[in-house]
Amino acid sequence: MLTVDRVTVTYDRTPAVRDASLEIADGEVLALLGPSGSGKSTLLRAIAGLEPATGAVRWDGDDLAGVPVHRRGFGLVFQDGQLFPHRDVAGNIAFGPRMQGMPAGDRDRRVAELLELVGLAGYERRQVTELSGGEAQRVALARALAPRPRLLLLDEPLSGLDAELRESLALDLVGVLRRAKATTLLVTHDQEEAFTLADRLAVLDEGRIRQSGDVVDVWRAPADERVARFLGVTTVVSGEVADGQLRCAFGVADVPWALAGPVTVGLRPHALRVASTGVPGEVVERARRRDHTRVTVDVSETVPDASTVDAVATMADGVRPGEEVRLRLDPGGVAIVG
Amino acid sequence: MDRTVARAVRGLSRGGRRGPGAGRARGAGVVALAALPIAFLGVLFAWPVVAILRLGVTDGEVSRALAQAQTWDLAAFTLGQAAASTAVAVLAGMPVAFLLARVRLRGAGWVRTFLLVPFVLPTVVVGLAFKALWPGGGVATIVLANAFFNVAVVARTVGGLWAHLDRRAEDAARSLGASPWQAFRTVTLPALAPALASSAAVVFLFCSTSFGVVLMLGGGRYRTLETEIYLRTVELLDLSGAAALSLVQLAAVVLALVVGGVARRRRERAAPLRAPVTTARRPAGREWWVVGAALTVVAGLLVPILALVVRSLSTRDGWGFDGYRALAGSGDGALSVTGWEAALNSLRTAFDATVLAMIVGVLAAVALVAAGRARGRAARLAGETLDAALMLPLGVSAVTVGFGYLVTLDALPGDLRTSPMLVPLAQALVVVPLVIRMVLPVLRSVDDRLRQAAATLGAAPVRVWWTVDVPLAARSLAAAAAFGYVVALGEFGATSFLARPEAPTLPVAINELISRPGELNTQLAYAACTLLMLVTAGVAAVIDRLRAPHVGEF
């Protein structure tokens, strides 16, 4: 188990990470989610031992302060792979086992095994310069897993790839991580990546960990409005929870998980759906997405404390700017803030 | 000097003290790496030079020298001719660098090898060759001769980095509407700046301390600080005057290094490296003009060399091999050994010097890279100070250093002055800065995350270096070793001062032969000179081929 205890990393007297604490249980995937510049990569590098830091990084209770990078047994995958350009695919993957002194025969088997795992069987003799972006990231992952690290650190592993590839590789990655039973810390700015891959979530902002917990819990109940907005909330209104039901200006939704009392409600775009009944408003803007239509709706006449809101419509709705629509509340997009 | 080093060491350790784990370990590592180069520099350079300066600076001679207009004239001429020579070398070297790095033409490899020949010719010999071509001498001849030596420094250093630059940055500029020239000026040139600044600094130092050439071509009219120091030390026995001039020279060199260092620091950053295979291609369109310019430069370099070869084959009665036959003997009583023995002696000495210089130079380069990456300002400053300090041996009179050895080195156990290792050590002192300048830009261009990836995979720091830096820098390491070897082969200034009479190197023997009367001595000298060129070209060719492009290696 990894324990990060009040770690602070300072660059030229400005702290990039302040008092960050988190834990990752064996076999668990924790996503460290934050906007760019929030200090998440710095924290990951501090855990890897690549950044001098104050505070403690512990593995199963042992302080790693005196343990250099190469003895920590933490695998690392960079955003752009950083494969060794002077070695072929097998040479890259066999690097870690070689450092451990594994005999050549075992090494070859391990390389084949990992290529199989990441879906690139038979790629041993390929030059890394000839790989596509997705293949290179798979090789980088295989390379990091080859020495059987006790912790896998992924630094924005999918950010350099195009959208479609990112999605399919994310799903593959889930499978690989589960099969390898790798304890993993994933650093990303992409919520979808975090939700796809992680069991738990820690949100980092301006060098501080604002919230951490189970993915669904953080998703439903962001700690504050900043975190909520980072997690996709675009509209914030006040409301009241009673008997597992939320009442707010946009209607009623079932929230059996929420505590009763007055609350701040965070609405993601898909919490408000264009429907035949609901709160009326005028469409101001429309943007087509792959599987839905995103609309901005002026509701200032009916809900004065939220002048315009983001909502979604189905492709079939065919809404146009200037049209009058009604918005129905969908519990799937509702968050209780604070 | 000693204090600078001490400060550098303190700075390095301070820079590493910040964090609990990684930081301190790295700081300690940097200090450990830097220890050997610093010790080497301290014992073989700082100590002898300081001792000589102290000998001279006892009786107010410095202020007297500074008050003389002649001193300032000498300084101005020294720096002026060095600047002009550097400019010529850079202008001539750039097209050749392009040829070496970006052009896939048959014979380009031979150009790379050939370029080393001028660089390692003994200065006395080149002086003679230029004098034969332009009997009048004068400033222009001095500048041309100095540039002749140093085109290789620019072409090989800049070409080494150029071959690794990603061509796509230029392509991007072209697609944004830049002409080929604009793309070169705004994208390629800035990326080459570190190598360009490095090589220009080295050339400037070489030219400002150039000795044999100025002595031969300047006559009585044109003198530099270096020749004046030699004159005062050896002929006039005016040790304090020489020491005063050494101080002026040292100050000028330090100033030049600081200016060069500031320029480098502003520009040196990691450049994305590519396999050279992908960057070289057949020239097209106006690139042929650049290739033409490069070939013109190469032809120009050939002229003095051919003059030497022709001279070695001319006898009183037409063509002949008299000079070469005489290599088996010792001339007209001019030498205590045969020509072949001197040649063998040269090879051995240069080998030892290269091994020493590679160890010291590569350690220093690795320490400098680590210090440059360090977070603390103090560590970076210490790195830059060490960087500049390691260049100083190029800028200080070989005469001063040589004399310093005679004064100081008896204090060490096992009197180094009579040791056969003395000459290799002195030659290594000259070669180390070259090794650093050639290896450093490439090591700095290696993405630090590659090293980090290796570390997270379980490679200890030495292993990281061996598995990441060495393969990626192998080309420059091989080139640096080749360069160092041939420089040591041709080293004249310090060697002439320190070589034992019973064990002269080839350049020393040539100088000895040329200063004696007699047809046989002259012919033997020219033959030995040609032999030196052949050996040099051969060694350079072998080492250049050793790192033949194995696809995927880089």
UniProtKB/TrEMBL annotation, chain A:
Keywords associated with the record: ATP-binding, Cell membrane, Ion transport, Iron, Iron transport, Membrane, Nucleotide-binding, Transport
Keyword Transport: yes
GO MF annotations, alphabetized: ABC-type ferric iron transporter activity; ABC-type quaternary ammonium compound transporting activity; ATP binding; ATP hydrolysis activity
The keyword Iron is assigned to this record: yes
GO cellular component: ATP-binding cassette (ABC) transporter complex
E.C. numbers: 7.6.2.9
Pfam families named in the record: ABC_tran, TOBE_2
Domain ABC transporter: from-to ranges: 2-231
Domain of life according to the entry: Bacteria
Protein known as: ABC-type quaternary amine transporter
